[in-house]
Request: fold
Amino acid sequence: MQQRVKNILFRNRTRTKLASFMVVSVTVIVVLYLLGCLRSFSNRQNDEVSIALEWNQFILKAEITTEGFRAPVAARAYGYIGLAAYEAALPGLNGNFQSIVKLFPGIKLPSPPARDHFNVAASLNACYAAIIGKFFMSSADPVSKHRLEIIDRWEKKIENETDTMSLRISKDFGSGVAEAVYQWSSTDTLGFEANHHNYMRDYTPPVGEGLWVTSPYFPMPALLPYWGKVRPFIINTEQYKAKPLPEFTAAPNQIYYTQALEILSLSKPLSAENQWIAEFWNDDHPDLTFTPAGHWLAITNEVIEKERPSIEKTLETYLKMGFALTDATIACWASKYYYNQERPETFIQNYLDKDWRPFSPSPSFPSYPSGHSMMGAAASVVLTKLYGDHYAMTDRSHDDLKGIVVKPRQFHSFDEMAKESALSRMLVGVHFRFDCEEGLRLGDLIGRRYRNWSWRKN
Reply:
């Protein structure tokens, strides 16, 4: 009897061990499978983010070598490219994201493919390649060849990771979205291809005391005098007009005189630190640097490269940044040509020092408000919302530029960057303090329009 009980207990223990072994084995298999799925998902996400990052880095190279790409024109291109990229990836995004083309009724997108036959990376690569090729059609030959190299490299990688049908469907959808968004951009006739006619020789500025005149040291026609009428993405331009200027007077102790005197005093001479700041943000050199708007795209690229966010957050960042920069330049140029405020250079030479010259030539458009300040404030609000109030970074935007050497600068927040960018325009000698302060105020308001803007389904 005792032996029988022992045999029964032995068999029960054996069954228990076997069952435990099977549970553990199944658990291990499931865990390994899930880890494999996670690695596969992570690799796909990393490729998608890398595609978006590399194409936005390419944009800056193309911008430098494409004739006529000044800040407003460049910012507008970012907006349309960011919109196309988001819509091209949408069928494969996680969460409850929805199309935003209902805000822009003129866009006729192709029908989205089924998720089972959709590859985000393939669609994104095709979309970026197509729409960037259209916006930067006249870029230098080496840059155009680089574009083809990026297309080919990513296509080969994606081909090894997806089936032929999904690849074809996804590429067709991405390029179709690019074409639809680009065609919609062409319906904004004042903004479309403005790089081919940005200096308007037939524009005659108003004449009068305190009004803008072309610098004798940079005698170019007015830059984009009608840009304030370009179609914005979200804002109503009329609601973002700069505050009225005080009545012009050259009398001592009045605002124009005292602020011109401030510029003059800062310039004689610029301290080493102030010269560094002035040069660091002075992205107004065609063929050498990207534009002031491009500097903020470069900063955004640095953040994406460092943080490697999800593809959803990556595309949200580029979209909101492009929209905010576009709307900031439109509102800024509307006020510039409404007030036609003269540059400090003109006031100082007329009333303080006839031989004085700014550190950098005065741009060929009115002074008030400051474009650097508006773009910086709008961009910093967007980035702060997405990446935090105290985001510390070293800005190395200029490290890869040829023909210009500017040391990197360290910052503790995006807001600090925006304010230093605004200050730099006074140090360069091309803006009064009130230009910069009003630019920061308006840019902040525009950035706030995008800070909490979401296109998730309710």
Summary: Residues 37-186 form a domain with the Vanadium-containing Chloroperoxidase; domain 1 fold (CATH 1.20.144.10). The chain has two domains: 37-186, 207-451. DSSP finds 13 helices and four strands in the chain.
